[in-house]
Amino acid sequence: MHAIIRLGNGQYYTSAIFGRYPDESNSDNRDLLIVFNQKKDRLIALPELEFTKDGFISRKVIIFDTHDSSWRYSYGKRHYGGVAYLSKKDCFSLIDKFDKGLANTPIPDKCYKDDQAIKLEKWSKVRTDYDIKNLLNITGAFHDGYVAECQRDRKTGNIRALFQGMWGTDVELIFQGEASCYLHDPNEYEPWWDDCTLTRFRGKLYLLDSSEAKPEDFDTWDTDCFCAKDLFYHVIPR
After folding, report:
1. pTM for the full model?
2. Which H or E run includes 111?
3. What's the rounded Cα separation, in Å, for the pair 30 and 3?
4. What is the pLDDT of residues 123-173, one digit of tens each?
5. Which of 10, 83, 149, 180 fits a 20 to 30 Å CA distance from 115?
């Protein structure tokens, strides 16, 4: 797994994730993710969610790569676990040593190898179900998102859509190849998405603004929807 670590004001860095555990010291029961710090010279535990100055929930850590074949999960708690070569005890032991300022605390070489294995691309193409899962994870299934901009390229016919409003990131989408869309009038009905359907059907990718929608509903769906042969996305952390 790999994540974007938001620093605020559009600044961020990326890191492999080495573990995910409940924050037992916090009454909000937020998850803690074990990642590198920005300098990549120590491990830290960060809450996945944080509260903004306005009291809203946002995401401090945004997982952009969900691949977890090397992870081991707690029995009966599929949500929690970590990489096979670092137990929960090892993770927090390392963090404790860093917090105490112990010099020359070794970080396993595998941590650095894993960190370098995946990079956040400027543009990613949705090809597989795994890619769909990544995009849904990045956007939180487009929860609280809305279409801030939408244009069709007159030469290529491609559709560019900018989604804003999600918890911690904006996402720019390019629908390419027989692209089409329908946008409802936001003056008649609120523009925010609650969830979505993103799936491939008959050679095209469909994005519709409800988890209950089906791609075959596209021509009759009465609110925001997009479809095209290919889909590309660009992540814009806030």
Report:
1. 0.93
2. helix 109-117
3. 17
4. 999 999 999 999 999 999 999 999 999 999 999 999 999 999 999 999 999
5. 10
Written as six digits, the tokens of 78 are 């599929």
pLDDT digits (tens, 9 = 90+) for 18-61: 999 988 776 566 789 999 999 999 999 999 998 777 777 889 99
Cβ neighbours for 137, distance < 8 A, ≥ 6 positions apart: 62, 63, 64, 66
Sheet of strand 124-125: strand arrangement: 124-125, 230-237, 169-176, 159-164, 146-152
CB 68 within 8 A of CB 114: no
Average pLDDT over residues 212-216: 95
pLDDT of residue 145: 96
Token pair 């329908």: residue: 182
For residue 166, the SS3 value is coil
Residue whose pair of structure tokens reads 């003056």 in the numeric block = 187
With tokens 């929807």, the residue in question is: 225
Cα torsion 119, 120, 123, 128 to 10°: value is 80
Distances from the Cα of 214 to the Cαs of 57, 165, 201, 207, 218, in angstroms? 30, 24, 9, 9, 7
Task: Give the per-residue SS3 of 5-27.
Answer: EEEECCEEEEEEEEEEEECCCCC
Half-sphere exposure of 238 (CA within 13 A, CB side): 15
Helix (H, G, I), strand (E, B) or coil at 31: strand
Tokens of 81: 């676990």
Mean pLDDT, residues 181-198: 91
35 beta partners = 17, 44
Q: Which residues pair with 218 in a beta bridge?
A: none
| Measured distance CA(35)–CA(32) in Å, rounded | 9
